[in-house]
Amino acid sequence: MIQKERISLLNDEKTKKGSYVLYWMQASARAHYNHALEYAVKNANELDKPLLVYFGLTNDFPEANQRHYHFLLEGLRETQRELKNRNVKMLIQLEKPPEGAVKLAEEASIMVTDCGYLPLQREWRQEAAKIIQCPIIQVESDLVVPVETASPKEEYTAGTIRRKIQKQLNDFMVPLEIRKIHHSSLGLEFESLNLLNIEKVIKELKIDGSVQKVDWIQGGNISAIHHLKSFLENKLDHFGDLRNDPTQNYLSNMSPYLHFGQISPLYIALSVIKTGGPGVEPYLEELIIRRELSMNFVFYDPDYDNFNCLPDWAQKTLLEHARDPRDYLYTMAELENAETHDPYWNAAQKEMVHLGKMHGYMRMYWGKKILEWSKNPLQAYHTALYLNNKYQMDGRDPNGFTGVAWCFGKHDRAWKERNIFGKVRYMNDNGLRRKFKIDLYVERIEEMVGTKK
């Protein structure tokens, strides 16, 4: 079932007598549990046409580097293979995505596309919709409850959006029917990038090589489901108790796959519910409520990527304390190289730089300390976003933008006033030592990144 709330028409054109139905795949880069794909298959069958899938690969996506591209290309290679098994041809072409979509739409009866919430993703679809002369139908497949259905405005906290989502959740927690395509498109003649050798492709694309790929995780839906099954079998039952403990490894590692559209959040949610264990509720809180709050934030707030996104009270109190004396001040280079006096912060930074992922609790501590050790809160905000987007596998993601903003008071309340932070929530190393055997985290990271002396 594909709910009507997932479907929106981006233009007013009539169906053409084209050669195929075109699915412009960009955000939901997978063949598995993809509402946009299944909607496209349904329409292709109804129109008695083959289905052609297109992915536009731009080599200058903002702030993306080899680490991000390698993971993306691994997933695209698998998706192309899986679609071939369903008799669907997938084109991966190096060009600005809307330009490629416009060209291919000339011979399309209709175009289906998926849904992204960052401004650039929305601009691409709007740009194409102004030119294309067949219907463009957008189908949301990367949220359980579509963002505009969940709420018509920016929400203040998780508490305010939780009530709205919970009222509608049952309507969307419905398995997706997988359809068989009636007409193969494999015989259609189109050029496509050869992804057999990803390293060669990356060199040819001349992508920013300052951050290298990671080896502990592989892109693609098959790998995503493997990690998910392992989590469900071995960790979910204890997720509620241990997810915030950085000395334990009880996270699902789904965030990179969700960021690149390589796994369906609905599929994850349904798989989690089937277990019936004690970790179901706390995990769905993270997957649905917290994640969809982040989508709500970037969709409705034009300042989602800068200091101005903060609530008035947070901006006011941070600016009032901007000139407070700091015990430590670090340059961007010192922070990037994990050269601070704090071994816990250094370990978190090394985890991110070397592994492409930082434990969620440590990311909160990490962001708070950047605020404390920077000349002013505006510089701190820029630094935190820069480092997060550069090194995190799920950088440049609504969750990342929201996580950084939270460290500066977004989606939080005012606390007791103190130096530098004003009324923004404070965290310190004593809290880490009190709650966890935090030195074990440092030891584990040092061993993992190969810097233990």
Radius of gyration: 23 Å
Specify the number of helices: 20
- What's the CATH class of the largest domain, please? Mainly Alpha
End-to-end CA span: 56 Å
- What number of domains? 3
Shape: globular
What is the CATH superfamily classification of the largest domain? Answer: DNA Cyclobutane Dipyrimidine Photolyase, subunit A, domain 3
β content, as a range? Answer: 5-15%
Low-confidence stretches: none
What do the pLDDT scores average to?
97
Which fold name corresponds to the CATH topology of the largest domain?
DNA Cyclobutane Dipyrimidine Photolyase, subunit A, domain 3
Helix content: 40-55%
* Total strands: 6
Q: What class, by secondary structure content?
A: alpha/beta
Helix and strand pattern: EEHEHEHEHEHHHHHHHHHHHHHHHH
The biggest sheet, with number of strands, parallel, antiparallel or mixed sense and barrel status, is: 6 strands, mixed
Detailed description of the structure:
The protein starts with 6 loop residues before the first strand and ends with a helix. It has 453 residues and is an alpha/beta fold. Strand 3, helix 2 and strand 4 form a beta-alpha-beta unit. Helix 16 packs antiparallel against helix 17 and helix 16 crosses helix 18. A six-stranded mixed sheet has the order 1-6-5-2-3-4, sandwiched between helices. The mean pLDDT is 97. It is built from 20 helices and six strands.
Task: Give the SSE layout.
Elements: E1 7-9, E2 20-24, H1 35-47, E3 51-57, H2 66-85, E4 89-94, H3 97-105, E5 108-113, H4 119-129, E6 136-139, H5 147-150, H6 158-172, H7 198-205, H8 221-234, H9 239-242, H10 255-259, H11 265-275, H12 280-300, H13 312-320, H14 332-336, H15 343-355, H16 360-372, H17 377-391, H18 398-407, H19 429-435, H20 438-449
Helix pairs in contact: 3-4, 6-12, 11-12, 12-18, 15-16, 15-20, 16-17, 16-18, 17-18
